[in-house]
Design goal:
alpha/beta; 166 residues; 6-stranded mixed β-sheet
Length: 166
């Protein structure tokens, strides 16, 4: 199945799993992370995350979706961007996407929605982050069947600028 790039609110995607652009401590943050926690039920999601924390950059873990339309939330920690470590950042970002896809498949998911990981407060240039996401997802889909959406924030989503801060 193809990769679809859509504009919208990731917390309203009708997919089996959504991906949270998490911090390594799996604590509720701002941006996409905060929006996902609020939509899922912050206390329940934080308790589930506390049992799994911490994670390494480029890794991922899964929790229930609680009040979200998605059955699962896959939490992955992308890298903080640094020009001096460009190749290392690229590899860690790619790993975040691939590990999330692997976890979704392990859980039997047929569909998944991603934000543009690390492209907000973590400073990854959006065009480079999009290229890494596209390549990682496309490579994965060569050997696997899954409906994958890359969800870019839409002004009409009603969450302010929050979803741009992945």
């Amino acid at each position: 199945m193809p990769l679809n790039i859509v504009r919208g609110d990731i917390t309203r995607m009708g997919t089996d799993a959504i991906v949270n652009a998490a911090n390594t401590a799996l604590q509720m943050g701002g941006g996409v992370c905060g929006a996902i926690f609020r939509a899922a039920g912050a206390d329940q999601l934080q308790a589930a995350c506390n049992a799994l924390a911490p994670i390494q950059t480029g890794q991922a873990v899964v929790t229930p979706g609680f009040a979200l339309p998605a059955q699962y939330v896959i939490h992955t920690a992308g890298p903080v961007y640094s020009r001096g470590r460009r190749e290392e950042c690229r590899a860690l970002l790619r790993s975040a996407y691939l590990r999330s896809l692997e976890l979704a498949e392990e859980k039997g998911c047929k569909s998944i929605a991603f934000p543009l990981i690390s492209s907000g407060i973590y400073g990854y240039p959006k065009d480079e982050a999009l290229e890494v996401a596209r390549q990682a997802i496309t490579d994965y889909l060569q050997d696997h069947e899954m409906d994958v959406r890359l969800v870019l924030f839409a002004q009409s989503a009603g969450q302010g600028q929050a979803h741009e801060r992945a």
